[in-house]
């Protein structure tokens, strides 16, 4: 029965190849050895033989403390996850007969969202008889597109969905 596969690098008896290139604890290259000899040499120093580059030919192994190696790798992954920026979709809702000042306020928000690196979904809602004047809505979305042309690109061009006209813009 084979042992369950563990996540992370293979070490000691889990290394299945016959020969490996060995690097000791100080970073010195000890050359290509049989895996059995390398494990014994690592045990003599009080460390484990850890496979650091399994795709090389022969695989590269290093004398390390496995627990410490896993801990450092986990800390590194957490730090990368922390600095990673996820891209949200912010929504701005308008009406086809929006006033100039209201439009300016909405555009300030659109600009702020785009500078923060988020996508913006501009939703234009038609009510009542406004639905028969869809050209007004299209003109408004073209105006939005022109106003953000320097900092953003249109990802989804204006389209109707029921009583709403939608457009998605993303940072350049």
UniProtKB/TrEMBL annotation:
Family: Belongs to the IF-3 family.
Pfam families associated with the record: IF3_C (PF00707), IF3_N (PF05198)
Name the record gives this protein: Translation initiation factor IF-3
Function: IF-3 binds to the 30S ribosomal subunit and shifts the equilibrium between 70S ribosomes and their 50S and 30S subunits in favor of the free subunits, thus enhancing the availability of 30S subunits on which protein synthesis initiation begins.
Encoding gene, per UniProt annotation: infC
Domain Translation initiation factor 3 C-terminal: 88-172
Record domain Translation initiation factor 3 N-terminal: where: 12-79
Source domain of life: Bacteria
Subunit and partners: Monomer.
């Amino acid at each position: 029965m084979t042992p369950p596969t563990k996540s992370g690098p293979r070490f000691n008896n889990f290394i299945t190849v016959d020969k490996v290139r060995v690097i000791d604890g100080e970073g010195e290259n000890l050359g290509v050895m049989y895996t059995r000899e390398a494990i014994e040499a690592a045990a003599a120093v009080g460390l484990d033989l850890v496979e650091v580059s399994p795709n090389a030919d022969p695989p590269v192994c290093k004398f390390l403390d496995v627990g410490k190696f896993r801990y450092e790798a986990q800390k590194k992954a957490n730090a990368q996850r922390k600095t990673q920026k996820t891209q949200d979709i912010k929504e701005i809702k308008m009406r086809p007969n929006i006033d100039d000042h209201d439009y300016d306020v909405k555009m300030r928000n659109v600009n702020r969202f785009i500078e923060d690196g988020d996508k913006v979904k501009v939703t234009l809602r038609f009510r009542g008889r406004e639905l028969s004047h869809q050209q007004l809505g299209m003109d408004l979305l073209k105006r939005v597109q022109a106003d953000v042309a320097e900092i953003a690109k249109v990802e989804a061009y204006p389209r109707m969905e029921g009583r709403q006209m939608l457009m998605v813009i993303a940072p350049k």
